[in-house]
Structures are given as structure tokens and as C-alpha cells.
Design a protein that fits this description.
The protein is mainly alpha-helical. Among the domains are: about 330-345 and about 355-520, no CATH class; about 890-915 and about 920-955, no CATH class; about 960-1015, no CATH class; about 1020-1085, no CATH class. The chain contains 65 helices and no strands. It comes from Clupea harengus (Atlantic herring).
Amino acid sequence: MAACRRVHPLWLLLSLCICVYFVQAGKTQVGANENVDNIGSPQNPGAVPAAANAAPVAVAAQPRRSTGWKLAEEEACREDLLRLCPNKHSWSNNLAVLECLQDHKEDTELAPDCNHLLWNYKLNLTTDAKFESVAMEVCKSTISEIKECAQEEKGKGYLVSCLVDHRGNISEHHCSQYITKMTTIIFSDYRLICGFMDKCRDDINTLHCGSINTGEKDVHSQGEVIACLEKGLVTEAEQAAGQTGIKEECKKAIMRVAELSSDDFHLDRHLYFACRDDREHFCENTAAGEGRVYKCLFNHKFEDGMSEKCRDSLSTRQKLIAQDYKVSYSLAKACRADLRKNRCNQDTNMPRAREAKLSYLLLCLESVLHRGRPVSGDCQGEMLDYRRMLMEDYSLSPEIVLHCRGEIDSHCGLHHKGRTLHCLMRVVRGDKAPVDSLCQKALQSLVQEADPGADYRIDRALNEACESVIQTACKHIRNGDPMVLSCLMEHLYTEKMVEDCEVRLLELQYFISRDWKLDPLLYRKCQNDAARICHTHGWNDTSEPMPPGAVFSCLYRHAYRTEEQGRRLSRDCRTEVQRILHQRALDVKLDPDMQRRCMTDLGKWCSERTESGQELVCLQDHLDDLGPDCKDVVGNLTELESEDIQIDALLIRACEPVIQSHCHDVADNQIETGDLMECLVLNKHQKEMNEKCTVGVTHFQLIQMKDFRFSYKFKMACKEDVLKLCPNIKKKVDVVICLSTTVRNDTLQDVKEQRVSVKCRRQLKVEELEMSEDIRLEPDLFDNCKNDIRKMCQNVPYGNAQVIECLKENKKQLSQRCHQKVFKLQETEMMDPELDFQLMRVCKQMIRRFCAESDAKNMLQCLIQNKNGELMDPKCKQMITKRQITQNTDYRLNPVLRKACKADIPKFCQNILNKAKDDNELEGQVISCLKLKYADQRLSPDCEDQIRVILQESALDYRLDPQLQVQCTEEISRLCAEEVAAQEQTGQVEECLKSNLLKIKHDGCKKEVLNILKESKADIFVDPVLHTACALDIKHQCASIPPGRGRQMSCLMEALQDKRVRLQPECKKRLQDRIDMWSYAAKAAPAEGFADLAGEVFSSPAKNYLLSMLGMAFTLLFLMGLLCGRITKRVTQQLKDR
């Protein structure tokens, strides 16, 4: 046994030489053939070792033949030979007979004597020193080519061992055949392998793998013993540490045997017999050698026709390959140069060292590929096959078998084609039951080793589930390209996605998202940025202390930084980070940091939100209720979302039509500006806008209200102003109120320099306009009016400011708190009409036509001036009238009047102001007060001009006079129903009330009508019916007289009294009616004081006549005074003289 000191199988090598040579190398001398035949003969006592001599030999001694001993002539095997090998032409070849008999089917047993004869024959072959000389003759040229073999010491069997080790490099045909045949003989029985029995004796007994004593079980197919040991080896790897296992030297021997049998599946006797029929079924046309049959069987492992015994044997061999890649002949051969070049197998003396593991080889070479370095095509092909193999069968990863056993038993069971692995992924990704951390780690390691992110085809379950989606949605991408996975993510939750593909995709992406390196596109573009900014290491360096997802979080935080904020990512890296962020934002579980921090909050607030992509929406809805850690991470992502709304992929998909129609320019060019969301808000009510898009845009607007940072453009424009003017205020609505109040106060006080910057004021206007569109964007107003909305506006949609408009129209029925808030809103809108969403929407075209050059604050005044134009849109005209009605209810809602009459109001109407309450309308009382003073001609010029406009407008439409409408509601419906129904707005209702003055019973109404008559004396324009009737006469008789202060009315009255002047009949009639009305008014409402009397006189059309008569009376009185004074003076003097 001295020659067996070497672990290498001197074993088989020796035997090989002889056998093949004499059978198939017909070129050797006959003498050499005879020597070979005699070497294997059982009658050669010198060739039988002690163990063989001790065994009973059932074969009768036979005389030695000159032509050599023939196995076919032995009586012990004659019957089996006739039965199993009917082809007698091969009987003259001992090796052919041996091959035929030992390759019999399992259900065909050989006779015991034949078994023993064959075993002794093979044992003699492997232990005879003449093998070496035969090998030197057959493989002469090969030995000279392989320097390592040529240098081996002769006479100890090392030469043949070396040739077996290098059989893959043997090009000489006869030598290759010789070595191959002899290897087949050796592997039929573990006892024929030199040294194997000595190293594994104890383990064979421990594992009950068979007999080690010759004669007890000397069946020639004892490759079963090796299979048993291999099974024990792979089982040991799946057990917890600390359990007694196979000795290290036996492990090495087992792996060495597996390695030596890697090129030809005939050499793995157990697998050969188990898969012989399957080979014929699946791999009939696959030639043996170079591991081709193994690979073919591996590819069909999970086919329905594969036998369980063969499938089990294949799994065992795959597990051995996972422990040592050299057990795969094709992989070791294809990648040998790449491994050496990239220093992936430095410790070649330890076949089971870390460098020998398949996982290490894959990680090392994948790292090379990810860094952009070349790896040969053959090696990449082999890597692809074995990465796919790992993803198909979880049992090939001992760590998963060991640590995920409970999860497999409880949730998954055993499935083929990668389904068990995906089930485990689903369990880890789910929230129903906790998963062992070691199991999660094992799955993460497997995903890194297999690297399906680089080629989706590696994941067979995913490939099969998504085939239809790939063929339709991603057909423009080359098969195997990493962009296929990206394409699938872009179509997540779309009509093209199928449910099974969606589930499989999310299961895989869960693990890819936890290691940024598993996205090859991201790693290629960002490896330098990650090393520079996030301090990462190499692709296959597992020593990084960062938690899952930390590197990507670091990258996306820097992707949106400005130059002022410091280090930024390169353009290519930023593009990739944004791509992935857009895709992963669809599912909270694809953001490891968010899932970890928000696990409790997700369970508490979002357990019922099971719709696709709704978990982030739910967390945003409950932002104020979240824990600090969760609130922080959700807030940061929402802040990024405001800058790049494409992060919300579901919203972008829903809004695709309106983006294409109205926002395609900003969508294509958007770079960290937030323009796209602003465009969507502005076009929220276009015809292309669908319900999903509207809901999504409104939801984001509502989220923005929670923090001003969530409005990117507002944040960038106003951050300095907020820090200076509104510190410690976080909610956007409060910041907007703070800044707008500052702007309002500065405007009212006419300060020279506004405290709020120009760019902030501009953006503030945009934010206020957006808030005015939906009452929910005004939290204070919405909260105070919830009950009122429920009562009066329940069926009114929120958008387009329709709910706000509904509240305005039902203002008198609102609760006090809601009424006050609506009044404040109206006051703000009247100060800046651009904030009146309904007005701006309905009158958009009219503003462009009539008021394009008007200042924003004068927009409503401009529209009022053009209200009665022929080109005015009826809907806009109606909206303008509504706003006029609102303005006339309270002077505070008319900023132009308020400014013009700021001195007159406290001077003449202070008693009304003393009774007024903040945030409640005065129902036109102050304006009515000013109207009376206008009639008395006591107002300042600016105030008089504004009141004249109000009088003229209200004279045409009674609804613009709130006091008249309040006091005369019953009379209008009773006396003027037809005029109201006509809705002509030409002053007919007021004319009706004037004509029916005597029929009015309500004192308040009568007083209002009398006031109208009084006001009409001051200006004929206030009486539209009279003005229309007398328009021609005014032109002819009073053209030179300016309007106002009753001048044109006095002109007409004088013309009426002048018999030389002929007025139009209608004008004459209307004037006579007015005189009668004024007379009645004077009787019905006499002057209450000298001031009223003076006002009556000065406002009278007969003012000149009255003043002249009054002057004559004063003159007469004065003369009488003088006369009476002289008389009294004489009487007094006479009395004194007495």
C-alpha cells in the first residue's frame, strides 16, 4: 500500500493503463497484450494482494493459454455473459466483457461467483505495477507534453495518477481512451480507489454505507457506497453546527472522487444507474464527456418525465458542485483562465476551502463583470447555467435548508422550478408571521450569488410568470438585458401586467432593494459616487456594516441636492437613482428604511389599505399621527416627491392624457423644479383629466398642506422669508397665512419696501390660488364648515371651488363660525380677485379679452366696467353680478370703495360701525348711509365717484342693493313678480316698486324706495328708466351740462317747464311721474332736521326756484327787521326824554 500514500487515485490510473490498451490500442505488440491479459488474471498469484488471497475463490484453476487469459471463458460468468452480452464478437476483449457486465440494469443481478470474479479481476488490474509501463507505452507523446507527469517518480504508480488528473488535456486518442476506460473500472467500486477506504473507513461504518470487508458484499457496483458518503456530506452541510460529521480527510477524498467523475456521467456509478433511462429519454443525442450529459440532465431535472431517483441523484451532485465548483467539469474548464486572471482561486491546495465554493466563484466573477471588466463568453455561459440552477432549487443552498426549514414546513411545502424559493421570499416580504433573521440572510445571500437582477432568465419562476408581459410590454429590449426587470417595474399595476408576474416581481425586488449592488445598472453608474459619498466597498465585499437599503437612501438624498447644498451625484448616477426611486415608490416594502421605521405605523393605520401602491398614501394621510422615525422618513420622501412628482408613478400613469395634452413640455424637461405638479394643478379641470388623476393631484395638494417643505417651488422661493417672518411655523397653510397677512398689511399701509420678497410673493399667489380651488386645502375653513357642508352642500363636488361657492350662496344659513370664515375668505378674494378661483375660471376668456393689461387687484373692477358689453360671456356676466352682490353687502368687501371713502365712512356712518361685529356683514348699511350722503352731495369726490358707480349698477339690478332686497322681499314677490321673472336687469323691478309706492305696506321697504327716489334726484344715471326715456332730450337740451349733482336732472325739469321746448313724449311722461313721486316722497318722509331740509332743497330739481324764493323771503325779512328796528329805537328815545 506504499504506493497509495498519495491521495490521487493511483487507484484507477493504474488499472486504466492496462485495460484499455490491450483492447483498443491495436497497435501494441502481441507480447504486451499477453502481459496485460495475464496481469488481470485471477490465476496470477503475484497480482493478488493479501485481501484478495483471503477471499474464497470459486473459480477453478485453468491452464494458462498462450493467447492470454480470457474473462469470457470463465465458467463463473458464462451464464450471465450469455444472458446479458449476446454479442460474442466482443468476448475476446476482457475490458468489453467487463464493461458489459458491470453496466447491467439494476433489476438484473449477477451470480455471486461472477460478482466475486469481476471484483478480483478489477482489483488485480489496479494493483499491478506493470500498469505504469503500459501507460508509458500507450501515452508516450502525452507524457512528454505534460511536464508535470514526465517529472513524476517512476515505479510508484504516480505517473498514471497524474495522467488521470490531466485527462482533460490529453489530445492523443488512444491514451485518452485508455485513461477513460480505466477510470470507468475504478469508479465501479470505492475499494478500488487507492487510499479511499483507509480515509473513509470510519465514516462508512458510521453512516452505514456498506461493507469494507471483501467477500461480505463484493458486488461490483459498490459505487453506491460513494453515493452514500456524498449524501452524508451534503446532509451535514444542511445541519446545525456542532453535530458530529464526516472527517475532513474523508471529505476531501469524497470531493476528489466527485471531481474526477465530473467529465463523464458513467463515472458516477450511482447516478449512472439511477439516470440511465432518463438519459435515453431526455439526452439521447447528447454525447458523453466534458460534463455534457450532466448539464443536459440538470436542465431537465424538473420535467414531469424525470424519475424521482434520478432527480434525487442529480440534486446530490448539484449540492456537491455548490460546495466545490470543480465538481462541475464544464464550469471549471470554462472559467479556469478567468479565475486565475482575477485571482479568484488563490488557495488551490484546499479543494473545499472558501475559494472552492460555487458561491465564491460566482460572486468573484460577477464582481468582475459589474466593474466592467471582461470575462470569457464560455465562462459567462456556464455561470448563467449555475446561477439559474441555484434559483430553481432552494435545496442546493444548505444555509436555506438549515435556517428556513420551519418556514418551508409551515408556509411553502416542496415545489419545483424555483417556486419554493419564491414562496420563502413571499413569507419574508409579508407581515403575517415573523421570519428568522438567519433565513432572511440566507435568502439575501442566495439572491446575491445568483444575481437575477443582471438577467431575469436566471429566475425561472419569474421568467415563466412574466413571459407574456415581456413579449408585449418589453419586446423592444434584448433578452437577458437588465433593463427587462426595469421595464417590468415600470409596468407594475398597469393593464399589461398580470397578477402572477406582479407577485413574483415584487418578491424578487424586495431582496434586490435591500442591496444596491444587485441592480447592475445602478451599480455600474453609481459605484464611484457611492464610494465617494456613501463610503462603500467592492461588489462582493460582505463586510459593509450598513443596514439594508442604506446605500440607496444615501444616494437618493444626494441626487436631489443643489450645488449650494454640497456634494452631488454625477448626472448618469442621478438618472439611475431617479429611475429606481420612481419604480420602488410604488411599494413601501421596496424601501427597507421606510419599512423598518414604519412597521408599527403601517400595522396601526394602514392594515386595511390593501390596494396597489396605497401604503405610502396612507402613511402620508396619517403623517401627523406617525411615530417620530416614521414621520421623518415619510416626510423626506414626500419632500422629494414635491420636487419630482414622477416618484408617484401611479399618479403619473393616471395623468398621462392631461400631461400629453397640457404638460408635455415640463414633463420632458423637468429637472428638480416641481413644474409638472404645478402644471397638473393648473389643468386639474381640463376635459382630459380623469377621476384617478384628479383624486391623485388633490391628495398630493392635501399632503402639501401638512408641511410647507412638501411644496418644492414654494419652499425654494420663500424659505428665507419663512425663516425671517414666520419662524417656528411648519404647516403650509399657516405659513401661507403668515406671509399673505404680511403682504396684505404692507399693501394697506402703503409701505415703500415690502417685507416679503418679490419671488416669494409671486409663488405665494400661486399657492393661494391653488388653495382656493378646494375647500379641503383650507383646513381652518373646512374644519369650521364641515357640518354646514353636510347640511347644504352634501352633493356638491369639492373641486373647482364648488363647495366654497355653495357656502357663499347659502351664507345666511351658515353657522356663526362658518359664516365668519367665509366672510374672511371673501374679504381676501375681493382684495385680490386672482384668488377667486370660480371667477378666474368662469371669466378666463373675458379677462384675456377685456382685462389683459389690467392690474391683478383691479381685475374685478375691469370686468364690472365691461359687464354690459355685447361681447361679454353670459356665464361670466352672471359671476360678476354675484361678486357685485357680495361686495355691496359690506364696504369691507369692496377695497376700492373702502380706500376712496376711508374719511367719509367714520364721518357719516360711525353709529353703524359702533354696532358692527368683526367678520359679519353689515348688510349694506354703510353703503346705504353713503348713498344718502351722496344724495345730499356731502361726500368727498373720490367717495362720490365710487358711490355713483354703485348707485348706477344697483339701479339696473335690485339684487345689488342688499337693504332693498332685505326690506322688500315680500313686496317684490307680490307686486313685481313678472319683472323679476324677466331677469332683464334694466331697472324694471325698481321702477315697479316706485310705481307701486302707494301699495307698499312694509315701512322698511317704503323707506328704501323713498331713498331710491331721493338718490335719483342727485343724478339721472341713477334712474335708468328715466335716463333711457330722456336720452335724446339730454343730448339736445343738456349736452353742455356735466353729469352729477343733479345738474342734468335740473336741466330737464327746466325744459319741462319751458313751453318753448318740446320733449319726447316718453321723457315728458316719465318726468311728470318723477315729480309726482318726489312730491309724495316729500309728504311721506318729511325732513327730520335742518340738515335734511337743506339736503332736500339742494337735491331738488327746482333747486334754483326754491333758492330764489327763499332768498326773496330772507331779503323781505331783513328789510322788515330794519324798519322795525328804527321804530323801536324812536319809541325808546321818547321814553327816555320823558
